[in-house]
Design goal:
CATH architecture of the largest domain: 2-Layer Sandwich
Number of helices: 6
Largest sheet: 4 strands, antiparallel
Shape: elongated
Mean pLDDT: 93
Strand content: 15-25%
Number of domains: 2
Low-confidence stretches: 5-10
Structural class: alpha+beta
Number of strands: 12
Strand order of the largest sheet: 3-4-2-5
Helix content: 25-40%
Distance between the termini: 36 Å
CATH class of the largest domain: Alpha Beta
Radius of gyration: 24 Å
CATH topology of the largest domain: Muramoyl-pentapeptide Carboxypeptidase, domain 2
Order of helices and strands: EEHEEHEEEEHHHEEHEE
């Protein structure tokens, strides 16, 4: 896989390895006594420290934290603490009372009172990504849907899947461009924008993207994708490349940034045994 962050500088190290994160929004710890605490914190240095100390003083273990990112101009942060009372002699009421003087608001709950060791996060709705409503869909669901669509529609399914990706890539890159031009007030090159967009796709679990070639003058673009969600389930199980959706996304990105239609060729794919998927994209010749 590609290097993530580049060289280290000074005495501080940078992150070089990936760590999977579970977004399932559930917590199951058999036989334990779990609660969710909802706390509104002032956006000041040390607010988390005060809350953590209260839980620690009552021997309550913090298992998970769910919250929105906050910036300097946001006065308060809304935080859900998933905590374990199994080894504590205190009650949730005791902890809540101890927290009250330190926070703006505090409450506690358990989604299923009859199942104290099982929590589903039903406190956050709707879900949002970059300000837009989002849903979490398992990669296995998408993979299965694509595979079934190919069985039903035959070769025509590949073109339709490609067009869905194209539409998504075009709209996505336009959204990123608009953000930097209108909100961030920054003028970035097409190459800088595409790198930011593809990094965002990685943060959403689509794959690990690398721009190998970005040549607008000659109309040649090359992308490498490690662990593409579209083919990860069929590694080395196919005879031809299978990333039609990702291919469409990348062509939509080129169209959105450069304004020209492009044609793709997937020359490598993990579905046929390659280490990564590789896409060569060129301006369409009319």
């Amino acid at each position: 896989m590609p290097n993530i962050c580049g060289d280290t500088h000074g005495g501080g190290g940078k992150i070089y390895s990936f760590h999977a994160i579970d977004l399932g929004r559930t917590l199951y710890d058999p036989g334990r006594n779990l609660y969710v605490f909802y706390v509104v914190l002032r956006n000041v240095v040390g607010s988390f420290k005060f809350v953590a100390e209260v839980f620690s003083n009552f021997n309550v273990n913090i298992l998970h934290i769910a919250m929105d990112p906050v910036t300097h101009d946001v006065a308060e942060g809304h935080v859900h603490f998933y905590v374990d009372f199994t080894d504590s002699k205190a009650s949730p009421e005791d902890v809540a009372k101890a927290l009250e003087p330190l926070v703006v608001k505090v409450g506690y709950d358990r989604p299923f009172m009859e199942y104290p060791d099982f929590i589903i996060d039903n406190y956050h709705f709707p879900l949002r990504v970059y300000g837009e409503r989002a849903i979490i869909v398992l990669a296995s669901f998408m993979q299965g849907m694509f595979d079934e669509f190919k069985k039903i529609a035959g070769s025509g399914a590949e073109a339709m899947i490609w067009n869905l990706g194209y539409m998504g890539g075009y709209r996505g890159i336009k959204g990123v461009t608009e953000f930097f031009e209108k909100m961030a007030k920054r003028k970035l090159s097409s190459y800088e924008i595409v790198k930011i967009y593809l990094t965002a796709l990685r943060s959403l679990g689509w794959g690990i993207f690398e721009v190998s070639t970005w040549n607008e003058a000659d109309g040649e673009f090359t992308f490498k994708v490690w662990e593409s969600f579209e083919s990860a389930h069929i590694k080395s199980k196919r005879e031809t490349p299978q990333c039609f959706f990702i291919s469409g996304v990348l062509c939509g990105v080129v169209k959105g940034l450069v304004g020209k239609e492009a044609t793709p060729k997937e020359t490598k794919c993990i579905a046929i045994g390659d280490e990564y998927c590789e896409f060569h994209i060129k301006y369409r010749q009319y």
